[in-house]
């Protein structure tokens, strides 16, 4: 078994949650999302992010608006929808439960 493969699968499993947490704080441009994930040591490339953002938008969890940029063409800023906020709340509960389970197993 390859530990890097397992780590990759774990990161993929929490990527959607992390993106939604970032967008809960404020609307963001895709490059800003990538930068914030990198700062948190969760490396994501555009080829991974854009399909995920599209899927979340198609599921009505995200919306976007075009905002003029001083550095080029308008930028698409993503934000959570009301449905996305509810979904994020459910993910937060699941995350806490999973954390408690892992902590219990690790410490027992």
From TrEMBL:
Tree of life domain: Bacteria
Name listed for the protein in its UniProt record: Transcriptional regulator, PadR family
Signal sequence bounds: none
Any Pfam family: PadR
Residues covered by the Transcription regulator PadR N-terminal domain: 19-88
């Amino acid at each position: 078994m390859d530990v890097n493969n397992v780590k990759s699968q774990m990161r993929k499993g929490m990527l959607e949650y992390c993106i939604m947490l970032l967008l809960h704080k404020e609307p963001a441009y895709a490059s800003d999302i990538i930068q914030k994930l990198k700062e948190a040591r969760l490396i994501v490339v555009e080829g991974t992010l854009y399909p995920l953002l599209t899927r979340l938008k198609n599921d009505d969890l995200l919306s976007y608006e075009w905002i003029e940029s001083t550095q080029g063409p308008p930028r698409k800023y993503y934000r959570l929808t009301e449905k996305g906020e509810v979904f994020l709340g459910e993910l937060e509960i699941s995350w806490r439960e999973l954390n408690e389970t892992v902590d219990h197993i690790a410490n027992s």
